[in-house]
# Entry
Amino acid sequence: MATTTKTRTQHTRSAGSRGGASGARNGARATRLEHAEHGFTASPQLIGHLQAVLVDLIELATQMKQAHWSVVGRNFRDLHLQLDEIIEEARRFGDEVAERLRALHGVPDGRSTTVAATTTLGAFPDGEVDTAETVDLVTARVEAVVATCRRVHDEVDEEDPTTSDLLHEIIARFEQFAWMVSAENRTPASR
# Structure
């Protein structure tokens, strides 16, 4: 115990002593909690689950941008603007998932090679795509992100309920997007 206290005291002094011979402190100071992160650490399984959600969100943002640039046809402007909303949310939630991984001592991998190799989203077609087809393609990809979140949810919730709250937000938002986008191609039910 005496050795630990002495080591911490020496660390605090060396990190906080910047004032020369007088010993005055300038700037940030180390505390006993500095470099002592002993909070919750994600298991490899939890890290893998969050990584799966992350790559699908990154791929969704990329594919929605491609759709945004290539969509043509009736109701172009509305769909074009709606795609921007999906892109913004995919990027926002992707950042939240990556930062949650870091908070739990995981290292996210958002490199393009990793995303391409591990996403559950199918490839988006090249060239111009009609709005009706785009609606179906977007709906399928948004639902794929939701499916990934739902697939990992129970195991995430068992290990870390706080992280599952983030999945709840993603699921709710993207299920709403799937409904709103798919409604473009729906016809009213007969009365």
